[in-house]
Amino acid sequence: MVDLNFFEKVDSALGEEANRKDGILCLVREYERTSRNITAILNRVHSAQTEEVIVQAAIEKFEEVKQHLSNLAQVVPYQKFYRYNELWTRTVQTSIFHASFVVYLTSERLITPDEIEPMFGVRVNLKNDLQDFHISLDEFLHGYTMLTSELVSELLSLLAINSVTLGNYDRPLRISRFVKELFMGFQLLNLKNDALRKKFDGIKYDIKKIEEVVYDISLRKLSRNSNSEDAGVRSE
């Protein structure tokens, strides 16, 4: 004899799971829309607008990011964070990048976890020991690599080139130093052969792209601050 009540309970549980996932996906799509808007704002760094205006516009949008993450935290059950995390993790990584780029444009330094938490309204879990809603260490590091792998090739390198066309020949040298220092930081980590490792390996190619600009500046002697460390030799 088969107890059909068991299957009815299973069907009910599956229905609840599907509804929860659909609700989460709806919230993630709203979050992704805000993320695309921030990307569009930061792309204006290559326009005639001042960076201060662009940065302020991006910072204001982070209030929406905070709200999106708060909404997700309310629907994700306790101790089931990693069951659903893959639905929004790429968007969080992009947001980490956005925040990193904003801080770079403001002060030319790397953002810290202590700065991320108030901007996102979510704890950064550096020890990977939390069960409630958080930003994982993996997401945080992926955001760092995106600052170089995606935006060195697409934004930061363009920023360097555009700076040159505007006569700001020192900025590409500062960008080069910043990316090299970030690369050195990642070298201290014992990364496994996974997606994060592949992104880290890609940073060396991003460095070469910037060095093409820096090397040309050095040859033309356009910057008073160029030296052998920053621009004398291109990477092989």
Automatic annotation (TrEMBL):
It comes from the Eukaryota. This is 3693_t:CDS:1. It comes from Acaulospora colombiana.
